[in-house]
Fold this protein.
Amino acid sequence: MPTQKQDEKLLMKQRSAQKALEYVKEKMILGVGSGSTVREFIKLLKKADINLSEIICIPSSFDTEAMLIEQGCQVGSLNQYPKIDLTIDGADRVDSDLNIIKGGGGAMLQEKIIAGAASEVIIIVDASKLVSTLGGSFPVPVEVIPLAKEFVKRELEALGGKVSLRKASDKLGPTVTDNGNIILDTDFKEIANPEQLEKQLNNIPGVMENGLFPKGLISRVIVAEQKEIKLLEKA
Ligand code: 5RP
């Protein structure tokens, strides 16, 4: 049985997802992120007063693709539709400047691609994801080619990170991403400059992508609180 707190959180996710629907229009190429909030968005998209056959969805993960198909959405690939109008995605942490950490679900590589390819990126979260500064409360997930694990780990430690290999829950050994890589969750105590750190991480040979999404990638964040919805926009 879900606790009252879990019910409240689900309700907040649904309200944030509902608000995001206002930005979805027919004829759009729509990037669709991953995670439980995005799953609520997909369910609402199916129920919305929109002709689903008029929207092409570009998924960011195996999980999202399966759900989009299950809900009767049209799925396309980024190679067919390289210019996305709008991407909707969730987040693990959002700071006061709208820098973001993503990758709790391990999908940050494809999520960053569909964010980068989109004219507009809207992030949907509940209020528990808001922090003043990134770092400490949630590690930065770093997707790494398996053969580079130990080398990358040392480089991340040299940057001040505390590294932990993400373990799979239903198999022995590491979590393997949709792209066949592993994830090094890296805790940086306080991230003073997310833009700089994002570049430093991606400069390490063997790193495919990391979960820092600097503010320049994000157009707005929809935050559902218990009683109201807040819209955070770029200054
Ligand atoms: C997956 C993600 C998710 O968007 C993020 O983990 C938030 O998930 P949820 O909506 O379940 O809290 O980045 O890689």
